[in-house]
Design brief:
Length: about 1450
């Protein structure tokens, strides 16, 4: 059992982070902090003081964070002290700092600038010298207030405070701020703070560290017309004694929290207490009070459900939700302790429908963050993923309860798809110590932060599936109860502790957890499964072939774990713990089979027993021939083929991982009818979505696909999001071959719901059926996506959309049609106008202009309609840029970018201008325009979103390096290090990402090395290593060119094994993985060493065996694997099929099996056996085999080509040690000769990454010249090479015998079946019926066949006798050839024998066509020392 985790006190945790501070200071532990501020809203001024009770380090220097503050005095225990305020950011004013740079240089400079700014933020900027001796010296008394120390002990129950009483000091800092821009924001009559990373230091002095937590007392004095909302419990409000117009709000936070989560909002708020729960309060501006009441009327359900699920009361006592004006808010939401600040644009009234779901999810997630993230904090910086994932998991529980299980599964399915696409590098590793130290919490910003949150939630849901929902719920309850226990001072949660809970409470075994967390949490990459199935009717079983891969790039794996990666990770043989379930839907019901292991072999063949059986019946096969037109017969044949699987098997459809227990990408290859069955019969929305996605990928759309999608759209019982996906799929199927049935069905469906059949026009809007409203809202967009044969929108679709926009009537509808109209306008932007549809463009533009004029008079909800009109006009102008002047559109959009417009309208106008500039003048001008927009835009949120749009354009345009001017790159670098970037953390990060993308790099800090200066010795050492690597890379590139030319030839299969500089441990693992097989060779081959006087010794054999292709062809067809050129590079090529060997599926019908015999020291023997493959060995190619620093030289001077024969060639070789590197390095002329001669070159298939097998003739000859004596030994072995033909013949006979036995058994079974059929036919004919056995012609044909078989057997027997005689004659000259050089007579004799064998073999092959030929190439190795090849 696992030992309970040892708790750390605050001092130990603080000591662990002391290395991030300055060298002259130590980590300061704050016990308590009091903040007293007076706020002048008119002058935008903040002044006051803060008091901190800190534990002073031994050197007496306290380091705090106070950026941009004006500090008047600092007192320690009531006495003034000296302090130093270091300016943290000094920005360069040099305008010619970057004169001539490229995109690569700019990316490197951006990494250096970004790292430097982040490093500066980690160091404190306020240093206080409070060193005063505790003994009375020079009349100075002890500054320690023992009464205060006792109060601290009683308040915080810290057992360690007794030993550090003498170190506690009370620090008072008096400061003021005027018109601050960072951390706290003034705009009009509203003040609010944001919790950006490391920005709490900008509005009050504190220890702004993620691991620092303490209790707070908060006092804010404002004018009486304002309301100050802050964290904790509101104790009381006090009217000012000196100024009756002021009011002081006093709050208390009794639970230690991070300074980042101290928030403040000041405005003339209207307070709306919750009617169902007195601990909840809602505040907003008076103008938004009605929207507030409609928005939060459900919130008490979320609050009570969380308390019920966790079986614990809300930890902070009270909860406040504040909605500030959207123009003031710098983000959509800020989460603080017991308080959340939201932008007012998420508020909605009772007439709005589309905003409801997203707003409720956002409010529920903010409440979940109060439990996990603020009340319970991460133990270390690497544990942040766990709290983020638990908050998302709690939100998902709410979605299931109040929005439905279908909504929860749909969101999780879409999130998992995005994670699998993006989880390719180390920045997505959740709990990587290296990533946490190098990223400085930037991994939580932007799209990467959202992807990491989705991945964290998915991993926790996987654990929930493994241990069960109730056990997982008990773990969360245990975590909350432990945090609320007053005896525990630490309210942190770490990955190790959660793993311990999963073992103790979740009942998960420790071996499983030991594999689960390193693979899913500490690493990256998701499994990719490709499956193909076939039904075995005789055995009533399903044969499922599975090929497993990974989304990640294996070259990133050593970075994730800090270089300590196992050999499995290095070779790419990575698995995942657990078993995946396969669900089979049969005629009799549904059956689950948890039989698919996620580790081990990357290619597997599963056999699943079916429970249902079909009654015996005959299938009427279509007759050959056709009618006059041939149409009916072809259709009947196609229908028979399509429905064959459904008629001949009880299998309806098959699913893998139906409960989404794995974060995986699954691709199943099954017949079309099974996908249709899955769409129509499966009630799970994930199954329906998978079926829709797959049906859209078929190369040809049949009417069966169109009808299935239409049925899904028409069915009102299907989840509305699935119906929307069906509508978009129907738009894709609308083609000429389907007679535009998809477009017809879409229009017909819409008219059946919305049109009046009497007049043929749309009825007035009625949105009371919400699911139907969402589906109908998406239909016009789907219709606009239909394309004709010319790639343009058909006129029927354009006219239909114009009709909808023209006759829209919302009178009498209780709900707003703003999103409805926005959807119609968006559909116009999807239209691609052609010659037949251009007539509808003027009336459409007229309708859009009318909507814009109406918007100026009466703005819509959040400017949604104006945003859609601007976006649509921009899309039309870009598509018709050759006919429509873009300057006119710019004049039309220009008024929408003024400051008096809503922030969403300004943002859309900025995007439109940037898109137009990128289309006209390129990306460089567009980026320059974006810089000017950012300079003039006051909203931090709009600044970040404009740059996010530029980031998207950089990814789409993919302009070359020369297309970006130096001035633009310099402007981006200036922005990166400017004060504006420091104010807006998101803007700074997006600027860095743009510079990385322009250089063709990943937009993350993960791969950027920290700037550091190496010593001279280190530099020279690195230079030497780089030179060696360059030489090695150049050598590899030459081999790559040769292999690339060979790869272009059809019918060739490549296998490459090579890994330079492989350690002994890696080689041992390679041998165990690549050459492990159950087919163990029982005896090692015996070789004769001429250099040692002719004595014999046994050597281990390494065999490369190419099996017959029948089994592999079946699996390749099941999975749908393409040949070598089209195979997915992420998929390994190893495919063991119904065998314990490791076989290779290269799409060519060839399987390669590697077997290794028992090893004995002293060398190796390599034997290559090719089944139905022609191996050509010529004098021009001298094979070389290197075994870990060894070399094997072979001579083939006397070996000839034997094409399509059963004979084999033997090479006599010498070797140096055990490290195998076998690389084909033959010239193209040699390859062409072999191709022209009719033979095939035996190439190699990639079994393990970066391991190669090659043949090099030139290196062999050089090695032979350097070792002259050894070359003479090789020449003496030529006769042995000829004598090995007998051994090959014996092996061929053995294989023929086995093949004959197998065919004889098969013939016997066929004869029995024919005899039984004849008896049945005789009985059917009756006594007077005639039978073919009585026919003389039939008897004569039968006699001739028997005679022919007898002659073939006799001829084969004579050939075997000839071989035996030749072997007896060869034994005598073989002994003499070992003592002297080969003589001409013997050589001629052997040559004559080989020619005779070749002739007889060819003749035998021509006569006996049913016997498969097997060729063997044997390479015998003799140890030659320890020299490296």
């Amino acid at each position: 059992m696992a030992k309970p985790k040892k708790q750390k006190n605050e001092e130990q945790k603080g000591a662990g982070t002391s290395n991030s501070t300055s060298a002259t200071t130590s980590y300061v532990l704050v016990r308590h902090q009091k903040l007293c501020l007076a706020i002048d809203m008119d002058n935008q001024r903040i002044y006051g003081h803060t008091e901190l009770k800190v534990v002073v380090p031994e050197n007496g220097i306290i380091g705090l964070y106070a950026n941009g503050m004006n500090i008047d005095n600092i007192f320690v225990n009531g006495l003034p002290v000296h302090f130093t305020l270091c300016p943290q950011h000094v920005y360069s004013k040099e305008e010619r700092k970057w004169l001539s740079i490229t995109c690569i240089d700019a990316a490197e400079a951006a990494g250096s600038v970004y790292f430097s700014s982040l490093e500066r933020e980690m160091a404190p900027d306020l240093l206080i010298n409070c060193f005063i001796s505790l003994s009375s010296e020079n009349g100075i008394h002890n500054l320690v207030d023992t009464e205060e120390v006792g109060k601290i002990e009683s308040n915080h129950n810290d057992a360690n405070s007794i030993s550090q009483q003498e170190n506690v000091r009370l620090v008072r800092i008096e400061y003021w701020l005027e018109k601050p821009e960072v951390g706290v924001h003034f705009m009009g009559s509203t003040l609010h703070t944001n919790n950006q990373i490391r920005r709490a230091r900008c509005w009050f002095p504190c220890v702004d560290c993620s691991l620092q937590r303490c209790c707070f007392d908060l006092e804010f004095t404002v004018d009486s017309k304002y309301v100050a909302i802050s964290n904790g419990t509101l104790l009381y409000q006090v009217i000012g004694k000196d100024d009756p117009r002021s009011k002081t709000y006093v709050y208390c936070v009794n639970i230690p929290v991070n300074p980042q989560f101290i928030t403040l909002a000041v405005a003339p708020f209207e307070v709306h207490p919750d009617r169902h729960n007195v601990t909840i309060s809602h505040m907003s501006m008076p103008s938004n009070l009605l929207k507030l009441q409609c928005t939060v009327n459900f919130f008490h359900n979320v609050f009570s459900y969380y308390e019920e699920y966790l079986e614990a009361p809300f930890p902070f006592g009270s909860y406040k939700q504040v909605f500030i004006d959207s123009e003031v808010a710098s983000a959509s939401s800020f989460v603080g302790a017991s308080m959340s600040i939201f932008s007012s644009h998420i508020l909605f009234d009772e007439r709005v429908i589309d905003q409801v779901i997203s707003t409720r999810i956002k409010l529920a997630h903010a409440l979940a963050r109060q439990w996990f993230g603020i009340f319970i904090t991460p133990e270390t910086a690497t544990d942040g993923w766990l709290l983020d994932g638990l908050a998302g998991f709690l939100t998902d529980i709410f979605i299931k309860r109040y929005l439905g299980n279908n909504e929860a599964r749909y969101r999780r399915y879409k999130a998992n798809e995005e994670v699998c696409k993006a989880d390719v590098e180390g920045s997505t590793a959740l709990c990587s110590s290296a990533a946490a130290a190098d990223l400085y919490e930037t991994q939580t910003i932007g799209v990467l932060g959202k992807l990491r949150s989705w991945k964290a939630v998915a991993i926790l849901q996987m654990l929930e599936k493994q241990m069960g929902p109730e056990n997982f719920r008990k773990i969360l309850q245990r975590i909350i109860h432990k945090a609320q226990d007053i005896t525990h001072t630490s309210r942190t949660l770490g990955t190790k502790e959660f793993r311990h809970f999963a073992n103790k409470i979740g009942n998960l075994e420790r071996p499983f957890l030991k594999e689960f967390f390193p693979r899913w949490v500490e690493s990256f990459g998701c499994p990719v499964l490709r499956m193909g199935l076939s039904y075995n009717k005789r055995r009533n079983m399903i044969e499922l072939a599975v090929l497993r891969g990974c989304t990640s790039n294996t070259r990133f794996l050593p970075e994730v774990t800090g270089g300590t990666v196992s050999s499995k990770l290095q070779t790419g043989d990575i698995g995942w713990p657990g078993m995946m379930s396969v669900r089979v839907y049969e005629l009799d019901g549904m059956y689950d089979h948890p039989s698919l292991p996620m580790a081990g072999d990357t290619c597997q063949l599963l056999e699943i027993q079916c429970h249902s059986k079909l009654a015996a019946r005959r299938i009427q096969r279509p007759k050959k021939g056709s009618k006059a037109d041939g149409s009916d017969d072809n259709l009947e044949a196609a229908a028979t083929i399509d429905s064959r699987s459904g008629l001949e098997s009880p299998l309806l459809w098959l699913r893998a991982d139906p409960e989404m227990e794995y974060l995986a990408e699954i691709n199943i290859h099954q017949p079309l009818q099974m996908w249709i069955n899955q769409l129509e019969r499966d009630k799970d929305i994930v199954a329906q979505l998978q079926a829709i996605d797959t049906l859209c990928t078929f190369p040809q759309f049949s009417f069966a696909i169109v009808n299935a999608l239409n049925n899904c759209l028409m069915d009102s019982k299907v989840f509305w999001r699935v119906r929307i996906e069906s509508a978009f799929a129907l738009a894709k199927t609308a083609r000429e071959e389907t007679d535009w049935a998809g477009l017809t069905y879409l229009i017909k469906f819409y008219k059946s719901r919305r049109f009046d059949p009497d007049i043929g026009l749309p009825r007035p809007n009625d949105f009371r059926d919400f699911p139907e409203y969402f589906v109908l809202e998406a239909i016009p967009i789907a219709i606009a996506m239909v394309r004709g044969c010319d790639g343009k929108s058909p006129p029927e679709a354009v006219d239909f959309i114009l009709q909808l926009l023209k006759y829209n009537d919302n009178s009498g509808n209780p709900y707003s049609d703003v999103y409805w109209l926005a959807g119609l306008v968006d559909s116009i932007g999807k239209i691609d106008f052609g010659q037949r549809s251009i007539h509808a463009l003027p009336p459409l533009l007229k309708r859009i202009d009318r909507l814009l004029q109406f918007e100026r008079l009466m703005p819509s909800y959040n400017g949604v309609l104006t945003v859609s009109c601007i976006r649509t006009l921009t899309q039309i102008a870009l598509k018709l840029s050759h006919f429509v002047p873009l300057e006119d559109l710019e004049e039309l959009i220009k008024p929408f970018q003024y400051a008096n417009m809503q922030w969403r309208v300004r943002l859309e106008a900025a995007k439109a201008f940037i898109n137009l500039e990128a289309h006209k003048n390129g990306l460089d001008v567009a980026l320059s325009l974006a810089m000017r927009f950012i300079e003039n835009e006051p909203s931090l949120r709009v600044q970040a979103k404009v740059l996010m749009h530029c980031l998207y354009l950089c990814q789409v345009k993919k302009d070359s390096e020369n297309s970006i001017n130096c001035s633009t790159l310099a402007s981006l670098l200036y922005l990166l290090e400017s004060y504006k970037a420091f104010v807006n953390v998101t803007l700074r990060h997006q600027t860095f990402c743009i510079l990385q993308i322009l250089a063709g790099r990943s937009p993350t800090l993960y791969h950027i090395p920290k700037p550091k200066i190496l010593p001279i010795s280190a530099k020279s050492r690195d230079a030497k290593v780089r030179d060696e690597q360059n030489v090695e890379i150049s050598a590899k590139s030459i081999d790559a060119e040769v292999l690339g030319e060979q790869r272009a030839k059809p019918g060739m299969m490549k296998i490459r094994f090579s890994r330079p500089h492989v350690s002994d441990e890696e080689q041992a693992h390679l041998n165990s993985v690549a050459f492990n097989s159950s087919e163990v060779v029982k005896e090692a081959d015996t070789t004769i060493s001429s250099s040692s006087g002719g004595h014999e010794r046994k050597l281990p054999a390494l065999k490369v065996r190419i099996k017959p292709p029948e089994a592999v062809e079946d699996v390749g067809n099941l999975i749908g694997i393409t040949p070598v050129g089209g195979l997915d590079q992420r998929m390994p090529a190893v495919c063991p099929v119904a065998s314990s060997s490791v076989s290779v599926d290269a799409g060519l019908g060839v399987a390669a099996v590697l077997e290794r015999s028992p090893c004995t020291p002293g060398g190796q023997a390599v034997e290559a056996v090719a089944g139905e493959q022609n191996v050509c060995l010529t004098k021009e190619v001298a094979p070389r085999l290197c075994l870990n620093g060894s070399q094997i030289n072979a001579s083939t001077s006397s070996v000839k080509d034997f094409q399509d024969s059963r004979t084999a060639n033997e090479l006599q070789c010498t070797a140096d040690s055990m490290n195998a590197v076998y690389v084909p390095n033959c010239s193209m002329s040699t390859a062409k000769k072999r191709e022209n001669s009719g033979g095939r070159s035996m190439d190699v298939v990639d079994l393990q990454h970066n391991r190669y097998v090659s043949v090099s003739g030139e290196d062999c000859e050089d090695r032979s010249e350097q070792n002259g004596s050894h070359q003479r030994d090789l020449e003496s072995h030529q006769l042995i090479g000829q004598s090995a033909l007998l051994t090959a013949e014996a092996s061929a006979e053995k294989s023929e015998r086995q093949e004959g036995n197998r065919k004889s058994r098969k013939d016997k079974e066929e004869k029995k079946d024919k005899k039984r059929k004849r008896v049945d036919k005789d009985q059917k004919h009756g006594a007077d019926g005639h039978h073919k056995h009585d026919d003389p012609e039939y008897l004569e044909r039968k006699r001739r066949k028997k005679e022919k078989r007898r002659q073939e057997k006799e001829q084969l027997r004579l050939q075997k006798m000839m071989v035996k005689e030749w072997s007896a004659d060869l034994q005598k000259p073989e002994c003499s050839s070992m003592q002297r050089r080969s003589e001409p007579t013997e050589a001629n004799s052997l040559q004559r024998i080989s020619e005779t064998m070749e002739t007889s073999s060819v003749q035998s092959r021509m006569e006996t066509t049913d016997v498969s030929s097997v060729q063997k190439v044997r390479i015998k190795i003799r140890n030659r020392g320890s020299s490296n090849c």
